[in-house]
Each structure stands twice: as C-alpha cells, then as structure tokens.
Amino acid sequence: MERISWNQYFMAQSHLLALRSTCTRLAVGATIVRDKRIIAGGYNGSIAGGVHCTDVGCYVVDNHCVRTIHAEMNALLQCAKFGVPTEGAEIYVTHFPCLQCSKALIQAGIKQVYYAKNYKNHPYALELFDQAGVQVEQVEFDETTLDLKKNEKWDYVKQLLNHLAQLGVSEKELSQWNEQAIKLFKTRLFS
Ligand SMILES: [Zn+2]
Ligand SMILES: [Zn+2]
C-alpha cells in the first residue's frame, strides 16, 4: 500500500463528507485544516432539523436550490458555533466554491483553498481571492484512495485479463479491456 499525501488525505475527507449531502442536485464536501489537523467539516444540506431535498425535492429559486447551506459555509459555521479560529486555515473542497462562499472564506481568514473539480468557477471569486492573497490550487482527487480493497480488486482483474489472453481473445480486444481497467484503478501495474 502506498502512503497517501496530506492533500489526498484531506481531499478524501471532503469526498467522504459529500456522501452525507442531502441535496439531489450536487453533493459537496469541505474540510477546514489548520497545521495539518482537521478542525471542521461540512457538506451541503438543510439546517439542522429541517426537511431534506432527498425526501421532499429541492426548493429551486432562479435555478438554485435554496434549501441547503453550502458545505464551505457549514464548515465555517461549525467553527463559529464552537469557537474555533479559522484565521490562517486552509480548506479542501470537492468543487470550486461559489461566489458567496468564496467571500465568506476570505472574510473568515482562510489563506489557502484546495479544490478538486472545477465548478462554474466565478471570475470575480478568483479576483477576490487574488486581491486577498488567498492561494487557490486545484488538487485532483484520486477516488481509488477511498477503495480499501483496491489491490485485491486489481489482482482479480489482472487474473481475469490473463485468463482472457489464454482463451485467445484478440490483442485489440484485450488492450481495450486493459485500458478500461487502468482507468478504473489509475495504475499501470499490468503491461
Ligand atoms: Zn436541494
Ligand atoms: Zn457556496
């Protein structure tokens, strides 16, 4: 097993949090980190005790679901609620933050934003981050990080591919199966 980087570790946490999202339109997760320690996390969902989009559908106004609090905001509010300073902290988000969240992050003193996927990246958000001296960096998340059985699955697929080769499947077909396996496992162990 390869040791994962801090960036992948915190990004994995945000992707786990996104699995708790209650909005059917988009699942977002955010993790606030200080000195390599997770100080808060959030996902997009309703206010505590409120009804969920997953149960009653989204509340859409102007093409936005207004029922949910965004992941970044939830993470910041968790800090506010429990009195945890966010000055100088970093945030890991699954998607590029919306304009409102971007402003809130700047105002809360977040100094570094790591995001996995581009999502309607607002040019004004980028401008404000730049103005405030907030570093913004895309960290592509390797989803196989969350698969604890990755190696066993990979070995199994390798066996199947070898078996196919023995059965006399054409080179062309074999390389197609192989390409697909490499895409899924993000590794090139099989050649
Ligand atoms: Zn919703
Ligand atoms: Zn937002």
From TrEMBL:
<comment type="similarity">
    <text>Belongs to the cytidine and deoxycytidylate deaminase family.</text>
</comment>
<feature type="domain" description="CMP/dCMP-type deaminase">
    <location>
        <begin position="5"/>
        <end position="137"/>
    </location>
</feature>
<dbReference type="InterPro" id="IPR002125">
    <property type="entry name" value="CMP_dCMP_dom"/>
</dbReference>
<dbReference type="Pfam" id="PF00383">
    <property type="entry name" value="dCMP_cyt_deam_1"/>
</dbReference>
<dbReference type="InterPro" id="IPR015517">
    <property type="entry name" value="dCMP_deaminase-rel"/>
</dbReference>
<dbReference type="InterPro" id="IPR016192">
    <property type="entry name" value="APOBEC/CMP_deaminase_Zn-bd"/>
</dbReference>
<dbReference type="InterPro" id="IPR016193">
    <property type="entry name" value="Cytidine_deaminase-like"/>
</dbReference>
<dbReference type="GO" id="GO:0004132">
    <property type="term" value="F:dCMP deaminase activity"/>
</dbReference>
<dbReference type="InterPro" id="IPR035105">
    <property type="entry name" value="Deoxycytidylate_deaminase_dom"/>
</dbReference>
<keyword id="KW-0378">Hydrolase</keyword>
<dbReference type="InterPro" id="IPR013404">
    <property type="entry name" value="Competence_ComEB"/>
</dbReference>
<keyword id="KW-0479">Metal-binding</keyword>
<protein>
    <recommendedName>
        <fullName>ComE operon protein 2</fullName>
    </recommendedName>
</protein>
<keyword id="KW-0862">Zinc</keyword>
